[in-house]
Design a protein that fits this description.
Blueprint (H helix, E strand, L loop, with lengths): L8 E2 L3 E3 L2 E8 L2 E13 L2 H6 L3 E11 L6 E27 L11 H9 L8 E10 L5 E2 L2
Antiparallel strand pairs: 1-3, 2-3, 3-4, 4-6, 5-6, 6-7, 6-8
């Protein structure tokens, strides 16, 4: 479908005092740690305002077999819909850890590229309970 993704084992959410933490790993090697503190529950009016459609941009790429280049390379618009039940606003932290080929042979170069990106500014983090619906039928190729 062209939606970017990283495969990972996601730990259950750990709650200690006012901090919520989780880690993402592949075959036991952690590559991303997430933390959220100072959680303030949002009222139902604010939560219901998050019940929206989201347009996600992706790139569908299928390489040629046996030669350079692509058999398919195209931008994709992939709409989704949020259905939140509850949410909190707080402060977030993100910590990427570079991987080696041995730790994650299929994704180490993606993880390392993300780990090298500078964090310019941290916006408030949102912890949401609910679901996000991928609306495949509304996806389309962008011209």
């Amino acid at each position: 479908m062209g939606i970017p993704k990283i495969y990972a084992d996601i730990e259950d959410l750990h709650i200690l005092a006012d901090a919520y933490r989780t880690r993402l790993s592949f075959e036991g090697s952690t590559f991303l740690e997430l933390e959220m503190t100072q959680l303030e529950p949002l009222d139902m009016e604010q939560v219901n305002a998050m019940n929206t459609d989201i347009n996600t941009f992706g790139w569908r790429y299928i390489p040629k077999v046996g030669e350079p280049g692509a058999d398919l390379s195209q931008p994709i618009l992939f709409p989704m819909h949020n259905e939140p039940k509850a949410a909190c606003l707080g402060s977030g932290k993100v910590k990427w850890t570079e991987s080696t080929w041995d730790q994650n042979p299929m994704q180490f170069y993606i993880i390392n590229a993300l780990a090298e990106l500078p964090i310019i500014e941290m916006k408030p983090a949102i912890l949401m309970q609910g679901r996000e619906i991928l609306t495949e039928a509304r996806g389309r190729v962008l011209k």
